[in-house]
Design goal:
Blueprint lengths: L9 E4 L3 H12 L7 E4 L7 H7 L2 E3 L2 H6 L3 E4 L3 H18 L2 E4 L6 H7 L6 E6 L8 E7 L5 H12 L2 E5 L6 H9 L1 H18 L3
Parallel strand pairs: 1-2, 1-4, 2-3, 4-5, 5-6, 7-8
Antiparallel strand pairs: 6-7
Length: about 200
């Protein structure tokens, strides 16, 4: 694949639904797929990403991390510590911008798992992001440059609205409202559908 060196290389540690939505949004908006990597423990989770988007994939998290200018941590919160500690030595050598989409884990905790002193963005995308209509709240630590913030804005704008927070503590409210709010809408729609069926509509 011919690469566009002007675009930062993006690596995803974890290749689940949200990672797929983000990288799909990137490619759909013109991001060079040869600048994107993704890793997962088993290749069967990566095959569809290669087929659908033409990105690079690997089952080696360290190799994936070593390719990154921007490292998106997209594993489940309960395995984040293990995943970060596995790649910490690589991150300390290459110094990418780390971006976490894990709920409930603050930037200091994740930064420590990565070996400390790591520029980081913490973000909270919601479920409508899976269809490109989401809203993502973002918080940057002090070491994140304006250029890096702009790049992260572009990444998450590919799946909907991207909004920066002034204080990391605000992420708790975002998680409750933006993260969980769409589920209440889905529940309402399902209830209306059930009522309509009961009424013979």
């Amino acid at each position: 694949m011919q690469q566009d060196p002007q675009q930062p290389a993006i690596s995803f540690i974890g290749a689940g639904n949200m990672a797929r939505a983000i990288l799909g949004g990137l490619v759909a908006n013109g991001y060079d797929p040869s600048r994107i990597w993704a890793s997962a423990p088993e290749d069967k989770h990566l095959q569809s990403l290669r087929d659908d988007f033409g990105i690079y994939t690997t089952t080696d998290n360290r190799h994936c991390a070593s390719q990154a200018d921007i490292l998106i941590l997209a594993v489940k919160p309960q395995i984040m510590a293990e995943a970060c500690q596995d790649i910490a030595s690589v991150v300390q050598n290459t110094r990418p911008l780390a971006v976490s989409i894990a709920a409930g884990l603050d930037s200091e905790t994740i930064g420590n798992w990565l070996g400390g002193d790591v520029p980081m963005v913490r973000c909270m995308p919601n479920t409508p992001s899976l269809v490109g209509k989401g809203a993502t709240a973002l918080y940057a630590t002090d070491g994140v440059s304006r250029e890096q913030r702009d790049t992260v804005t572009d990444i998450f704008s590919s799946i909907g609205l991207a909004v920066w927070l002034e204080r990391e503590e605000e992420m708790h409210a975002v998680t409750a409202l933006s993260g969980s709010g769409p589920a209440y809408c889905y529940l309402l729609v399902e209830s209306m559908e059930a009522a309509a069926i009961d009424a013979g509509v």
